[in-house]
Design brief:
- Helix 6 packs parallel to helix 7.
- This protein is an alpha/beta fold and 290 residues long.
- The chain has 13 helices and eight strands.
- It has a single domain, classed as P-loop containing nucleotide triphosphate hydrolases (Rossmann fold).
- The model has no long low-confidence stretch (mean pLDDT 96).
- It starts with 5 loop residues before the first strand and ends in a 5-residue tail after the last helix.
- The protein binds adenosine-5'-diphosphate and magnesium ion.
- The site of magnesium ion (MG) has 4 residues, from helix 1.
């Protein structure tokens, strides 16, 4: 069976929650499985583009122009501004003045449709089977474009102060508002960078508890992070012997980012790599398969 091409946005209205790490490693796993993935850096902080070493593209020295404006607001072909990360994985880099593009999109005719019309539709299913978008943390036209272009969102959550408001804001101000105008599916809600015990009152436990019991969210939690009612009983009785749920905190994940490499290329033996592979399966299937 040939998989259905799919684009997905990785987003949450909060910085430092694992968007870039998730987007890059998800795209890398899709590339590993299909040889045909593109990741789009839509965050003006350019973390993904800079981590991967494309400083010249980010600063505009490379093409001598703001390529994101040329593509989204002009009629430049996105193919001219795509770079190769590794076998089967390409990047459409961010530009330091992406914020100007956001202002331009506000003024532009049909400004929410540009990413879909000018980039995604021309490449998806043709050049690439999968397109992953690394979204900015603030609400605005760039996020609207990512939602509209993909119709799918994956939401990473760290057990940090503010995860409840980050999730609630994202659901209410991004997803529900978008759904008044077009279809938008939640593909996955994934707890990441967990390190604490879950058999004691820790933030990790509270995050997992909320994820796996909250209405409308629980069904989107990947199997590697899902705990059933029985699992919770076992945890509370001290009998749980399953794997620790969620993407765990690993030095290798952070170091890979510092070294400008996807996790697979930095440490293919990392025990968390399977979880990114499961995210890739969810994108292929279009839903969590429990
Ligand atoms: N599972 C993990 N283990 C270790 N470090 C992680 C993990 N997930 C994310 N990080 C680190 O957390 C920081 C924030 O993640 P990032 O993906 O850049 O968030 P965002 O894009 O939402 O701002 C980065 O330094 C990243 O390396
Ligand atoms: Mg980021």
């Amino acid at each position: 069976m040939t998989p259905e091409p799919r684009a997905v946005a990785v987003g949450i209205l909060k910085g430092g929650f694992g968007k870039t790490t998730t987007a890059l490693n998800l795209a890398r796993e899709l590339a590993h499985r299909t040889e045909s993935a593109l990741v789009v850096d839509l965050d003006d902080n350019g973390h993904m583009t800079l981590n991967l070493g494309f400083d010249e593209e980010y600063r505009g020295d490379c093409w001598g122009t703001n390529h994101t404006a040329d593509v989204l607001l002009g009629d430049s072909d996105p193919r001219e501004h795509i770079v190769t990360v590794t076998d089967g994985l390409d990047l459409f880099p961010a530009h330091v003045d992406l914020e100007d593009v956001q202002s331009g999109l506000k003024e532009a005719t049909m400004g929410t449709t540009r990413l879909k019309e000018e980039l995604v539709d021309g490449l998806l299913g043709d050049e690439y089977d999968y397109i992953v978008i690394d979204c900015p943390a603030n609400r605005g036209k760039l996020n609207d474009n990512a939602m509209y272009a993909t119709g799918n969102i994956m939401i990473p959550l760290r057990p940090e102060n503010g995860y409840e408001t980050g999730l609630t804001n994202t659901v209410q101000r991004l997803i529900l508002e978008a759904r008044e105008y077009f279809e938008l599916d939640i593909l996955a809600v994934l707890p990441t960078d967990l390190s604490d015990r879950i058999d004691q009152d820790t933030r990790d436990r509270r995050l997992l508890r909320e994820m796996t019991t909250r209405d409308g969210v629980a069904k989107h939690v990947p199997n590697f992070a899902y705990l059933s009612a029985d699992d919770w009983d076992q945890i509370d009785n001290g009998e749980y012997d399953g794997p620790l749920p969620g993407i765990r905190h690993r030095a290798a994940i952070d170091n890979a980012n510092d070294q400008g490499l996807p996790l697979r290329d930095y440490d293919a033996d990392c025990d968390q790599l399977d979880h990114y592979a499961e995210l890739a399966q969810i994108v292929e299937a279009g839903e969590v398969d429990r």
